[in-house]
Design a protein that fits this description.
This protein is mainly alpha-helical. It has one domain. It is built from eleven helices and two strands, in the order H-H-E-H-H-H-H-E-H-H-H-H-H. The chain has a two-stranded parallel ribbon with strand order 1-2. Helix 1 crosses helix 3, helix 3 runs parallel beside helix 7 and helix 6 packs antiparallel against helix 11. The protein starts with 22 loop residues before the first helix and ends with a helix.
């Protein structure tokens, strides 16, 4: 059925997959979701800006630690450098933007889910909370792994530059590198959530995941190598191994869900 849309009345929502919305109604729904997600990012941006000093020290710690522990790396003054009058301001904005997106991630995922959910059946809508919680938890786990391997990645890159090379890191490029590392690891560990979602909506089956595990290993290692900014073997292993483990976890979740659906269908018959 077609839901009417008039200003001042309740916003039209497709509550079942059989409901239909016009193009303008879809665009209005999308605009509302984008505005709410943007507002959440702005709030996160302000919070990070308020605690900028502590967050900056936290991000610099891996670099300063390896410079103080390994004098052969030739780190000048164990610090980061600004090469332009506006670089300090742009760095503060960059860190606040990265942090704002991370803090707003639950809201962003919820808005995405609410935009997609009208196309799902009632039984599929019940996975909203597990979907959001697992996505946030896996992104946080990926960020933790990235931060844990950051000093090892930096040490590898510094040593790879050659003996006797003085290291002078520009703060904006260092922060961009850290942000890319955390983002790559966080997004990489979201891959199993996508696999579970595709199984729930019937796009793929758990049998396919188990049957194609050899190809999955190769593909995951290639993806990890491409999205890892540092390119060092330690970061590659730190990202690809959890992705491989979570791949099989996603397949097992699909097996459990399918068996539960089969039992429910048998009881209904």
């Amino acid at each position: 059925m077609k839901l009417p849309f008039r200003r001042g009345k309740e916003r039209p929502v497709a509550r079942t997959p059989d409901d239909q919305m016009t193009l303008m109604e879809h665009l209005g729904e999308l605009r509302m979701r984008v505005l709410r997600a943007t507002l959440a990012v702005v709030v996160g941006f302000i919070l990070v800006m308020a605690f900028y000093g502590s967050i900056l020290n936290f991000l610099k710690e891996p670099y300063e630690r390896i410079c103080s522990q390994d004098l052969t790396l030739h780190c000048q003054n164990n610090g980061l450098f600004i090469l332009g009058p506006l670089e300090g301001f742009s760095t503060r904005v960059s860190i606040s933007a990265y942090g704002g997106i991370i803090l707003a991630l639950p809201v962003i995922l919820w808005q995405i889910w609410r935009f997609v959910v009208p196309g799902l059946h009632k039984k599929e809508k019940q996975y909203a909370v597990p979907f959001i919680v697992s996505s946030v938890a896996l992104f946080a786990l990926g960020g933790y792994i990235a931060y844990w391997t950051l000093d090892k990645a930096l040490q590898f890159l510094i040593q790879f530059s050659g003996p006797g090379v003085q290291q002078t890191f520009q703060i904006s490029k260092y922060i961009s590198f850290v942000g890319l590392m955390i983002g790559a690891f966080g997004v990489g560990l979201e891959f199993p959530v996508l696999l579970v979602f595709l199984q729930l909506v019937g796009v793929i089956k758990y049998q396919t995941l188990f049957r194609q595990w050899r190809y999955a290993i190769v593909i995951i290692v290639i993806i990890a190598a491409v999205i890892t900014p540092s390119g060092d073997p330690i970061s590659l292993a730190a990202l690809s191994i959890p992705m491989l483990v979570l791949y099989f976890v996603a397949a097992l979740i699909g097996l459990f869900v399918q068996r539960r659906r089969d039992r429910a269908a048998a009881q209904a018959a």
